[in-house]
Amino acid sequence: MTSLYPLEIFVRLTRHRRWFAAGMAAALSVLGVVTAGSARAAAGCRVTYTVTNQWQGGFGANVDVVNLGDPVNGWRLTWSFPAGQTISQLWNGGYTQSGAQVTVTNASYNGDIPTGGSASFGFNGSWTSSNPVPTSFALNGTTCSGTVTSPSASPSSSPSASPSASPSASPSASPSASPSPSPSPSPSPTGGPWPPSSTYSNPVLWEDLADIDIFRVDDTYYYSASTMHYSPGAPILRSYDLVNWEYAGHSVPKLDFGSKYDLNGGRGYVNGIWASFLNYRKSNKTFYWGGCIDFSKTYIYTATSVEGPWNRHTTINKCYYDAGLLVDDNDTMYVSYGNTNISVAQLSADGKTEVRSQQVFSTPSSVGTLEGSRMYKRNGAYYIFLTRPANGQYVLKSTNGPFGPYEMRQVLLNMGGPVSGGGVPHQGGLVQTQNGAWYYMAFQDAYPGGRIPVLAPITWTSDGWPTVQTVNGAWGGSYPYPNVPRPPRQVKSPTGTDTFAGTQLGPEWEWNHNPDTTKYSVNNGLRLQTATVTNDLYSARNTLTHRILGPSSTATIQLDYSAMRDGDRSGLAMLRDSSAWIGVRRDSGQTRVVVTNNLTMNSSWQTTSTGTEVASAPVSGGRIWLRVNADIRPGTGRQARFSYSTDGVNFTAFGPAFTMGNAWQFFMGYRFAIFNYATQSLGGAVTVSRFDLTTP
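Request: output the structure for the sequence above.
Response:
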């Protein structure tokens, strides 16, 4: 694990909000009482203390206070560190510390907390033997008790009217997101300037999210991506500033395209959802997703909310290959599609059938292949945005209607990308902000991690052609922050803790193929019953996957294996066409923790090796923590390392490092994967109590 010095972390967090949001590793919510200066004020609050990242001897944390009572004018939060931790730097407030006792006071810009509002601050600190979270807080002198006081309650000591004399660092843009599986309910990022910094950095999200379609509805941006054989398919991401994104839903609830997507008599690896379209039709307030499956038929799904429910709207008996959807000014829907020969189809008014289809362009042999259509209209002209895989982007333009004729111009070719070792940014979409600026969201090949989104501003020539704004002739590593309105709330951090509360998985999770829904449940934990008898992880149903966050991140699961049966295998994998895992095996009544590597597929995605056990140790007690740290910077020789713990605190490095493959042919990048399968008979089960994703 790469260590960052506290000052370096501080600079990154205060200048780039997404790095701050990306560090959340563990959280503790404490319900309590806030008492303002008036004796007649009703008061109550919720405090969330989050360890955002941790390294040897040091850590970062965020504290969020939500006011449940009457408005607060000036606040002071106190607590005692349980293991001698000390604060070294703090932002969004002032602080003093005497021994274990800590007092944090508001900054000049966040002292007022309205009813339902929140105030947040963050800090870097040091620890020695351990770093447990504080268990008790007091706000304005009143110990948190989990209730709201009545107006007749006794007054607490008066809060400090101004920050401590100790200067604070530059304010963070917004508080860290809640670690719950659902987006943070915080009403808005409060305090500090907007935008949070003068620039943003690429990639805007270091996760495998390729074949991008992007658009805006009012003040909200949406982004769709490919998922191939993962289910549910076609994830939808949401943003308010084009820089910070959260998972919102999936357009395809189930890969309902044949039994191979159920791992039943076949496999759907590297088939399924790719290069599809997503757009919004204002006339009926409906989102439309469409994609060609298995080079055969095009399926269209609709919903009035990205969270769903999504339903099959129609099936069109032809393949709209690599398609893009335009909803024209007169509400007519057009689909651009094709490889080399590019066509445009007009859909019926209800979007269920094709009215007309016509080839509108044939790619010159000097260019080669063009595909990945995205269709737009600007100033009366029609555009089809096309990629030359995997090193170029071109655009077609028609001033004579959607069916052309079209002219072609090169947008970029062999342009350097912002992520060292990665490929050329290409195959994405254009989007216009509320203030009229245009941006291009592309992906950059970055294996073994996959294809990651990068964002650049676009300008238009006087005769109406798009131009990527470059930095020293390349796609910039940073650009001026988009000029958009302040977001209404903080989006959910890509890191943090999922305790699988509620009864459904969060939208960041996807299964390897369709799951057997009778063999898992979510209810304050994820219970996985064995769903397949096999000795092959690639053939096992109900393997749950999560994207890896780059450039490196660590996944940890807490696993209750007490209900496993002989022959069962359960654990945490690095999943791709070459894989490895750390997990628990039960054989002949004996339980061991093991590392298995050398799981491989051939180019037809058939299993060529079910793996080799390379480390083993006996375990008992029924509970274990399994951890994988993955370095997914683009290039060869990148490694994942395994460790385990029997107490959740002290981890033991285990087995050899696993070297990941970085070939592109599997398309999808490596994922963390939670699995449980049987090699003898069904009936066993495990429970995953929590999943933690941390960086670095």
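The chain is about 0% helix and 45% strand.
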